[in-house]
Prior knowledge:
The complex is a heterodimer of chains A (372) and B (220).
Chain A: E1 3-7, H1 18-31, E2 37-42, E3 45-47, H2 49-58, H3 64-74, H4 80-84, E4 87-90, E5 102-107, H5 111-114, H6 121-136, E6 140-143, H7 146-156, E7 163-165, H8 174-180, E8 188-190, E9 193-197, H9 207-215, H10 217-222, E10 224-228, H11 237-246, E11 254-256, H12 262-270, E12 274-277, H13 286-293, E13 298-301, H14 306-309, E14 314-317, H15 322-339, H16 346-353, H17 362-371
Parallel strand pairs in A: 1-2, 1-4, 4-5, 5-6, 6-7, 9-10, 9-12, 10-11, 12-13, 13-14
Antiparallel strand pairs in A: 2-3
Helix pairs in contact in A: 1-2, 1-17, 8-12, 9-11
Chain B: E1 11-17, E2 20-26, E3 35-40, E4 43-49, E5 52-53, H1 55-59, E6 66-71, H2 74-79, E7 84-88, E8 94-96, E9 113-115, H3 117-126, H4 133-147, H5 149-161, H6 167-172, H7 180-192, H8 194-197
Antiparallel strand pairs in B: 1-2, 2-6, 3-4, 3-7, 5-6, 7-8
Amino acid sequence: xxxxxxxxxxxxxxxxxxxxxxxxxxxxxxxxxxxxxxxxxxxxxxxxxxxxxxxxxxxxxxxxxxxxxxxxxxxxxxxxxxxxxxxxxxxxxxxxxxxxxxxxxxxxxxxxxxxxxxxxxxxxxxxxxxxxxxxxxxxxxxxxxxxxxxxxxxxxxxxxxxxxxxxxxxxxxxxxxxxxxxxxxxxxxxxxxxxxxxxxxxxxxxxxxxxxxxxxxxxxxxxxxxxxxxxxxxxxxxxxxxxxxxxxxxxxxxxxxxxxxxxxxxxxxxxxxxxxxxxxxxxxxxxxxxxxxxxxxxxxxxxxxxxxxxxxxxxxxxxxxxxxxxxxxxxxxxxxxxxxxxxxxxxxxxxxxxxxxxxxxxxxxxxxxxxx
Amino acid sequence: xxxxxxxxxxxxxxxxxxxxxxxxxxxxxxxxxxxxxxxxxxxxxxxxxxxxxxxxxxxxxxxxxxxxxxxxxxxxxxxxxxxxxxxxxxxxxxxxxxxxxxxxxxxxxxxxxxxxxxxxxxxxxxxxxxxxxxxxxxxxxxxxxxxxxxxxxxxxxxxxxxxxxxxxxxxxxxxxxxxxxxxxxxxxxxxxxxxxxxxxxxxxxxxxxxxxxxxxxxxx
Lengths: 372, 220
């Protein structure tokens, strides 16, 4: 049986978004695959399987780094001869290169290189100094979208037979859907609101939403605007909020949730009039898929990979164009008014989400390992 | 549903209270909670995580009380006219076939109440939240004993404020040998602080909520 390792450094993050969720999906697939002898690594240190199960249960790696410090004293790094016989999957920047017999990397996006204006210099340097050699020393590259695959092919000249797309997914716990669904709270009606998805940072283009509200204060009166996600570094947020207030939009019409639990995220998406995802650049655009699986329309930008995700559920706009954004918002508001409340029972939502399950992510990786 | 996140039900108690199924469900051992589902025939109507605080479970000495559930959807289940069953979320074993008096099933109020978004999120978060600081202090005190006072401080800030402690407090912090009353007092001060009270969505995290960062070894 082939021995394979999965780098799980991302699982040690306190709160999981993006890459940790991809690693979690692969780890869950690995734990349930009897045909590959899987091990889990932090760099070259083997991490007990029980830790991985605990992280997956808690959806957090908090406390893991402290335990890792103790593990370093208790265990040696894996034997190079054993590594040379094994396959390793790197879901992010590679901590070692050429250490394993066969190596594959997951490329999420080339954003620090293609849109450097949205990244700080340290991040650009770190990425730029690593990515070329990471690509060169990988036998195979899994890309999270066709757009990313095209970028890797075009900018690094990687032949297409070394590239493939893995499908990202969504999984909703029926417990969370039950807790989020207003069909089980028939005496409640939640005020109308729109959900703006993603960490607050310049690349996510939250500013276009606040500019729109300043120009269309009547929209802010009809819908509360909720920014869902971790606080990042949205430049000039206070200035924008002051501009909103000057335009006649009360400050409490805009809510910033910060990090929310999975249950709360499902509740926010499921009951939103519609969602907005105005990002300038994405390797994939998972929030768009989550909204689509819940049957919620998203107004989203037409850049990078985003149009691939769930085009049937989206109204697109050029993220540089306020006019196009305003038009997409109008279309979404009309469609939401016509289609809300349809097919929102637990069986409906479960059936709709099933084709997008995270279970579609692991098989491509497992198949490649078995070919080695 | 990922069964990795749940354990089979070993201890179960459930009844219809005011038209809603309530009770507790606990595993034989371990950290994983149970989930249970309400079915009408083979159609899953709703699921609940048995992670709320239940005074009945506490009184019975089950899992420190942290295995309560409230399972909505009886009205929808009856509407489908299948056999109504409560099942284990992992094994699908039937735990209860409630004799349902249709007249007592929860009826929706004729008046629909509009709530703000933050009120709604607070309602959602209340499932599985700690009923008071004292219940949180049981885990926090155990965490301090197992991992030391600095780890306790990090976990307390992450759990209640969602952030790391300020460097200023780390420099002066001396929490060696905190007893449970001191832990409870410290947590109470945090909960009464402007920072906690000013959060848009309220609620003291319970041990199975993702913002809870204390050790849960008491369940083992």
